[in-house]
Amino acid sequence: MSINAILDSISSFLEDREGDFVKLEDSGTAVGPGPLLFLFNLPPSIQIENVEYQNMVQDGAPKAFQQGVIIAHISRSNKEILDEPLSKALEKLVDEKGIDSISSSFEKDKSSVLYFSGFTNEEMMATYNIIGKELYKESGGSVTPACAKAVVNAMEKPLRQVLDEISGDHVEAMSSE
Questions:
Q1: pLDDT tens over the chain, length 177 residues
Q2: What is the pTM of this model?
Q3: What's the rounded Cα separation, in Å, for the pair 15 and 10?
Q4: Angle 21-23-24 (CA atoms, 0-180°, nearest 5)?
Q5: Sign of torsion, CA 163 166 168 171?
Q6: Are 172 and 99 in contact (CB under 8 A)?
């Protein structure tokens, strides 16, 4: 599937779901603690070292990188953090300098998610474009991750619910081609 086809599919999906999402231009600047990038539900076959992620973040988000970006890998096995409200989960990830939980619990029916906290919209999108393309390439085209950013209206929801909503919406958007 070409990038243009993916973008057309997402655009059509968003038109059908108007009001369900916070538009980037409406979400202000950097929201949440960080800068933090966590990767959720990545297949264990993707073997990218954290230093490589840091290099990609440096290319896409030089201002955030200068502040010291924390990169975390989260899977369903991180039950304790998944049950926390988003605000507390993000604070915990920042305080603990991330967690590294690459596991074999990859769920094929769920989307992988790149979740940004403490990034500006511009740097988030630039970084997502770089990392998203690399994940797509590393997975042989089987992973097209969702991209999400911390927003105020989601801070009290459990992290698990936030990720399930993002993943479900992304899967629906990608299947509505």
A1: 566 665 566 555 555 544 444 455 544 477 788 899 998 888 877 777 878 989 999 999 999 999 999 998 888 888 889 999 999 999 999 988 766 654 546 666 678 899 999 999 999 999 999 999 999 998 888 888 999 999 888 899 999 999 999 988 887 877 765
A2: 0.80
A3: 9
A4: 130
A5: negative
A6: no
